[in-house]
Amino acid sequence: MDTPKKLLLLIPSALLLLIFTLLPSLASAQLVSAYTMTTFSGTYTTIAGDGSSSVVNVSNKDDGGFSAPLPFNFKYDGTTYSSGTNIFLCSNGFMAVNNSTTNSVPDPVNWGVADNVNNVICPFSCDLYMYGTGGNMYQEISGTSPNRVWTIEWYNYNIYGYFSYYTSLQVKMYESSNTIEFWYKDLSSNFGGANLGPQGQYNDPCTGNVGLVGNPYASDKKMYATATGTIPSSDIRFTGAPDINMDAEPRSYAFGALGTGSSVQTTITVKSVGAISGLLVKSATISGNPDFTVISAPDPADAIASGDTRTITVQFAPQTAGPRNASLTIVSNGRDSGIQYVALTGIGLAPTIAIDTNILFKKKPVKMGQSITGRIIITSTSSPTLTINSFVFSGVDAGQYQIVHYPALTLPGFASDSLIVQYTPTIEGRHSAILTINSNAINSPALQIQLIGTAILPHITVVPNPLIFDSTFEGDTESKQITITNPGSDTLIISPNILTSNDGDFTATLLTGSDTAIPPDHFKTVNVVFKPKQMGTRQARYLLRTNIIPTFEQPRRDTAGTFTVAITGTGVPFGVLAQTIGSAVFDTTIKGMQVCHTDTLKNNGDADLTITSWSVTGTNSADFTASGLTLPYLLKARSSVVINVCSTPGDYGLRTGTLTINGKSNGKSESVNISLNVYGLKVCDQVTPSALFSTGSTPELILENTDSTECVTVTNCGQVASTYTAKLSSSSSPDYTISSPTTSGSIAPNGTASFCVKFHPNSTTVENGTLVITTPDLPPLSVALGGSGACANVSAPAPTVPNTNAGGHGTFNISITNAGNYQW
What we know:
Distance between the termini: 141 Å
Structural class: mainly beta
C-alpha cells in the first residue's frame, strides 16, 4: 500500500479562482441532480500533519484559495476530468470543479457561494476563518490505484465573527467509483451556539450551503441543507446514478465475395449492458457504398431491459465488382456508448484483370542488331473466367515490337499466364507504342501497356581526314593528332587500329586497352609522328575497324564498320648527321695510357652537310680528343668519313665527357652527341724485403765457399694482371745468381710472385749487387744485394817462456788471435 502523502494546502490571500480545462467523455451527461445522497456516521480522523513541523501557517488565512492537481481521473456531473487537472480549493468551505463557462467564479473575498455558480462541491460554504488556532488546509492521497482516495481537510476553522468555536471538516473523493463524501469532526454543532441565518454577527451573509452544484446551476443540484449555521448531523455520501449503456457485436463484418445480382444477410446484436434498463435504439443507418442496406432494426420506442438484446439485419447485394465497404451507425440513449459503428465489407465478383506491370522496356537500352524480351503476368483476379479477345499494337513505332509468346485466351478465376513481347529495333532512338489487351474484364476491358524501348548505336567522327603534314626536313620530326569522337548513343569499340606505310616515315601511338572503348560523347586522340627519310611526298594510312552495324534508315546514320584516314607529308632535302659508334664510348685503360676508336660520320640526308666544329665538354673533357678531319669539312649527301676518338685517363676511376659534332645543311643546324667514358685502371707493385743478404747497412756474413739463398715477394697491388721478370744488374758480383724461375707469369690483382737469389762468396770482402724486377707499365723494382764472405783465421805466436828452477814452476801467457771476420 502506498504511504499517504500529506501536502499542506497553502491559501495565499487575494488569489483568484483558477479555471481548469475539462476533458469530456463520450457519455451523455450524468446530472448531479440524479446522484444518490445518503447519510452515515464515520469516525473522523484528522490528516492535519503528524507534528509541529507539518503545521505551516500562512500570512492570510481568510478568504484564501489555491489550485491543487487532481491525483487521478474523476467523473463529475457527466464529465471525466483527467489526472493533473487543477481543482480550485477555497478556505470558505467549497471546491470549484469547473467554472470555465461562466464569469460567476466564486470570489473568496465575498466568501459566499451563490446559486448561480456551476460545478461546485460544498461541504460547508460560509465565511470561514482560521486565525489563532493553527487552522490550515491539508490534502492526502491514500490507497493504491485504481482505488485511491483524495482527502481535502479544512482544519480548525470558525465562522468569521464567531471565534470561540472551531471545528474541522473533510471531502473525500474515491477513484473508480467517483463517490464523494463529506466528513465532519463535530456533528450537529453550531459555531458559538448562534443560528446564523442570512445575517452574521458582522452583517456578513452566510448561506451555509451543503451539497453539490452541477450545470446548469438552476436545476442541476443535490443539496443537503442551505441557510443554516449548524453543521450537518451526519456525514454525507454522494454516488452517481447508474448508466444506460449499449454494446453492438460484432463491430466489423465481412460478407466475403459474392457475385453481382446476388445478396446475403447478417444480423448485428445490440445488447443493453448498463446498470439500469431503458436502452433505446433510436436509429440504424448505413453510409458508404450502396451495396449495403438495413433490412430491419429495433423499434425506437422499444425500451430494452438491462442484459436483453435486439438484432439489426443488414443485407449485402453487390452492384459492381471489386471491394465494397460501408459503415453501420447505431444511435442510442446509451450514456458511454450513445453512438457505435460497425464496419461492413464485401467483394463484388465479376471478371477482372490485373497485370504485374504496365510499362515494358523503359530504361533498358538495346544495342542495334540485338533484341530484348519483356514478360507481363496476366491474372484473373476474381472467380469468373476471364476471356482475352485480342492483342493490338498501336503507335508510330508499333513495328518495332512483336509478341513471341501468347497466354491462354481463357483464364479461370484467380489463374495467371504470361505474355512475352520482343523488342527488335531497326532504327536508332526511342520507340513508343501501346499494346492493348481487350477482354471481358469489368475493371479494364481495354487494358493498355506502354512500350518504351530505346535503341542505341555508336557513331564515329575522325578529324582531320586526311591528315596532312607540312614540309619537313629529312631527319626532323613533326607531330599531329587524330581525334576520334563518338557522337552516338552506344559505346564505340575500336578493334583493331593500324598504321600502314610503305615508306616508313610515320609512326603512331595507337589506341590500346581501355582506350579502344569510347563512351557516347567522348573522344580519344592518336598521336602521329612524321620523320621523313627521303625527300618528296611520303604517305601512310590509319585504319580503324569499329562495332558500328548497318541500319535501315534513309538517310543512313551509320558510318560502316571500317574507317580509313589518309596521311601525307613532304620530305625536304637536308643533310642528316649520324655516326656509327653509337650513343656512348666506354673503355678501360691504365691511367695515362691512351685508347682510341674509329667512328664513321654519315650524312644520311639528300643534301650536303658541312661539319663546322667539334668539342669535348664535361668534367673530364681533357682526357678525350677527336681527330682525323680538317674543319670545316664538307660531307656529301649519302656519304661518310672516319674520325678517331681517343681517351687518356688522367686519374684512376671513371672519367666522362661528351663529344659534340656540329654541322649545317641548307642553313639548318645539325649536331650529334657521343657520350665518352673511360675508366682509369690503377697499376701498382710492391716488393719485400727491399734488400737481401744485409740488414740495413750491415752485410750478412756467409762462410766462404758455402751457398746462401734468400727470396723477395712481389705483390700486384694494382687493378691489372701483370707478368714480372727478375734479373741481376750488370754491376752485380758474379757470386750472385737467380734461382729458377726468372719470370712469374701473369699475376692477378692482389696476387704475389717470389724470386730467390743464391750467394756463393769466394772472399771475405763485401760483394754488392742489384736484383731488378720489371713489369710492363711500371718502373722496375730494385732489391739491393750486400752480403759478405766470412772465415775464421786463428794464429798464436811463440810465447816467451821464463827460466824456472828444476822442480819448480813458472807462469807465461800465450796470445791466440782470430784475424778472420767470422767468430771462432
